[in-house]
Specification:
Structural class: alpha/beta
Helix content: 25-40%
Strand order of the largest sheet: 2-1-16-15-14-3
Amino acid sequence: MKDGRLEVRPHPGDPDPNRLIENFPDALRHHARIARPMVRRGWLDHGPGPDERRGRDDFVELSWNEAIDVLGGELARVRDSFGPAGVFGGSYGWSNAGRFHHAESQIHRFLNTALGGYVRSVNTYSEGAAAVVVPHVLGDYTDLTKRNVTWEQIEQDTEIVVAFGGMALKNSRVAGGGVSRHVERGAMARAAQRGCEFVLVSPLRIDLPDEARAEWISCIPGTDTALMLALVHTLVAEGLHDRAFLDRYTVGWARFEQYLLGRTDGQPKNADWAMSITGVSADVIRALAHRLHGRRALIVVSHSLQRAEHGEQPIWMGAVLAAALGQIGLPGGGYAYSLGAIAYYGRRQNAVPIPTLPQGDNGIRDFIPVARIADMLLNPGGQYRYNGETRTYPNIKLVYWAGGNPFHHHQDLNRLRRAFARLDTLVVHELAWTATARHAAIVLPATMTLERMDIGACANDPLLVPMHPVAEPFGEARDDYAIFADLAKRLDAHEAFTEGRNVRQWLEHLYEPTRLGLIQQGLSAPSFDEFWQGNGFDLPQEPDDGGLLRAFRNDPDAAPLSTPSGRIEIFSETIDSYKEVDCPGHPAWLNPSDAPNATTPLRLIANQPSTRLHSQLDFGGHSAEEKHRGREIAHMHPSDAKARGISDGDIIRLFNSRGACLAAVRLTDGIRPGVVQLPTGAWYDPDDPEDDLPLCVHGNPNVLTRDVGTSALAQGCTGQLTTVQVERFNGNLPPIKAYDPPQSL
């Protein structure tokens, strides 16, 4: 702090600093911050129960004592009347870089110790399909993503990278716990200078940095599986596939090959077939297959490809392509799912444990896939399929949310509004008035990172850093830990939750396993006091050994994969036995149901933003300066804009049957014609909340996206792609109200 103003600087050792920290200065004391505990008027007057006024009601200020009493009473009511199975513990983990004030750990620890458990969610919006299909096909998901091909290997060994969906630098800016060194840009630049070729397969040219010197293959969104099939078909038809690798390291190739060659359905999956699906010429496809043969080739598949209908297929098919090339397990070669999607991936792991808050034991075994929350609330007792099981949605009465913002992560926000209206009570810890907070019954103001003491650490970044508060809490905001400790006391669980420790004592306790790990390796192990008074230090990291895939390649019998067969499963007997028509026993091209038509002729890509983490600190300076006339910026090809009378800088209306939003538009030839791109994260801002399908005036694309699962196998999120129409907005421009606090009494 300098003269009452926050200054931010990147870590001095960072070769490619991250501008996201520039959101902090304006956000610290922004009027969107929540200053005091608030309760929705309708809930306070009429008690808990379903209410269509959520998101439309005003709020009443309470003192902290009143708020804790009211909430403690409601938690006790739900616990005693419905048990912990009537509570859903909502959190997405993002909200603070520190390992103690990790909102997901705090809320889960509280619910486990004070209520005996909660209904949880599994998987993530980012990797919902991949996290389910990868264990069937390749085994351990964490090892595939976090201990596989590193950026160091790419610099030294890789000859050609084909990046399906790209490796956009905006995505690798972040990781839970923080990133002290952003290495991705430099690694790609040095690899390219050495002669490594990068091929970008994406509708967006910006999905690889200029430093990669990439060839851009512009494909139709959602058709990557067809392109991969055609590449493998070319290899097989010309005898260029690695049959020895397939025989030794995989199972099910013969079954898949029958499909590939068209012997099961009469349609060979060749380059000519793929051309009409992907929009990529057959000659380009065949030429790429030839370039891959016999070289140290790396196949990268981004998170984005599986955030769509049939999202399991490109993940699986990418592994099959890498297997056909025989490169899996070699340094800098093979298959790297989601490399570049987040800063965890492509790095070495720390060789000692980092501080982690124990969450306790959850007495409730029930769960839902994370992207099925609206389905759960709208269909209690309804059945659904997931990973071979027929499951039943629980009857949830209370949702407790701390960390994350479902009005960012989730799709079809108008449907989500209806789902939240079915609850008895929604409780939210928040630092600012997000749409989730506006739909809550009880809103408790939480501190932000800069107002807390904590330890910053990431399992794949060496820096361990003491985090000292640099500002007093805003208004009456409290740490999540302090809020939960008071609630635990109200519910006779204070000792179980706190274990008698204050924050400083918890930090010292959580630091101890790290210190002991250093001692065991014969390394310098500062005491906690020494660590706390210093500027942090680097932890030792594990060797770059290629993980389980390297060990498997070296000796598949001694180091089998954790799949049912111990091999790479090109055909999965397990998945095939589930009889899911939308996810067969081998990767396949499955036509999407949400295809462009005369009403919605454009494909919308709703990808991650570059100026913030998800929707966090959307009101910060860096995020705000990249908007135009206060709106989020969409990108279109000039030919699509010209056909609609749209000029660069205009405000446009994007719409379909689910909703509509406004955005500013920038025209670029770096996007495929027929595609419009609008990043997620602009706070939902309905022009008239009283409407059932209000216009979002700020530019949140999730009023347009579909709330359906990737398939009955994974039930992952399909929020990356949908179809829309676009027109120039000629009316009076509505004001942005997303950051204005709601009316209060």
